[in-house]
Amino acid sequence: MSLLIESFPPLPIGVKNGVGGMLGQRLYIGLGSAGKHFFYYDLTQPEQGWQRAADFVGTERNDACYVVSNDNLYVFSGAGQREHEQSPVVLDDAYRFDAKTNLWTKLNTQIPVGLLGASACTLSTGELVFFGGYCKETFDSFVAQLSSIDQKSQPEKHQSVLNEFMSRPVFGYGWNGDIWSFDLTRETWAILDKNPFAANCGAGIVQQGSTVTLIEGEIKPGLRSLQTKQFQLHSSSHISSKLCASIFDIQSQHEGLAGHFCGQMQGQIFAVGGAYFVGSQNNFNNHQWYTHKGLTKHYSNSIWRFDGINWHSERALSQGVAYGVSVSSGDTFYLLGGESKLGEAQTRCYALSWQ
Q1: How far, CA to CA in Å, does 282 sit from each of 68, 220, 293?
Q2: Looking at 127, 216, 218, 314, which residue is catalytic?
Q3: Is the dihedral of CA 184, 186, 189, 195 positive or negative?
Q4: Of all residues in the chain, what percent are helix, strand and coil, respectively (each to 5)?
Q5: Residue 326 to residues 152, 169, 254, 302: CA-CA distances in angstroms?
Q6: Is-catalytic flag, 218?
Q7: 265 Cβ partners below 8 Å, 6+ apart?
Q8: Global pTM?
Q9: Max Cα-Cα span within the chain
Q10: How confident is the model over 145-192, as pLDDT tens digits?
């Protein structure tokens, strides 16, 4: 078996920190840096290329949590600035996109926990399951405080606030440590279980039946996890978990990944690209809690494959990329958009196959 990497038609505009998925035979992507724009590509009519879908109806947002269920795309939370607010906040609303009607609908719910940067999957019962997410109170307070300081006229005060925030230990941010569920029919929330691992933001998620694999992600701002974790969703009241082999096991210099593309092909899990800070793990091990201070963010072009037992290194992309949209469909894994090392939203897309 070998990995085939092919270019896929580029997006109309660059999209990073957005949402998307496969609805029917169409690939969808939008929001994030695309604002309220939303696009689709019909795999049965490739000659039509990328087309506009209905614009998003809520507040523009980055890093929203999203998941596909029954050919609907659900979007939860994210960071955005409402009209009446002075700075961005963790949003607590949710929306559904129906591909059949090409309509966005706001759900009648208020999210009870911060889900900025969270990862989600779906149960056969029609419930959505959520892992991780940024604490709304912590994020909102920090961003409001930092935005109230003029960096040019008060550089020392600005840096002092930043230093204090970034120097907290892993559990000093109040990230969501519970596994939450959302009942789509009743639009109600419940805590299913306590996550036995450190809460993540920006983790890769792959669902294979009742098995959910969470791959790395941040455990505090600037610091990535080195863990691959699996959860067995036996039912909404019975979840078991375990640690799996780590990429670190085969590459001792691995710093962990956030914003990476994750998907599956023929039973194999793939983690592609992603971003991290070189030296952050060493700083953390030396109890320097502002782990990425003075470090440059690195954008990976590596491709990793997990066979259920061990990780393996595969071919690499031509350039590093992170914070795009991952879509697995049949024997193909699509990488849509993302961010380059220059911070630019990308139009470039890839189609990967395992043959």
Answers
A1: 38, 15, 12
A2: 218
A3: negative
A4: 10, 40, 45
A5: 39, 31, 22, 15
A6: yes
A7: 328, 331, 332, 333, 352, 353, 354
A8: 0.97
A9: 59
A10: 999 998 999 999 999 999 999 999 999 999 999 999 999 999 999 999
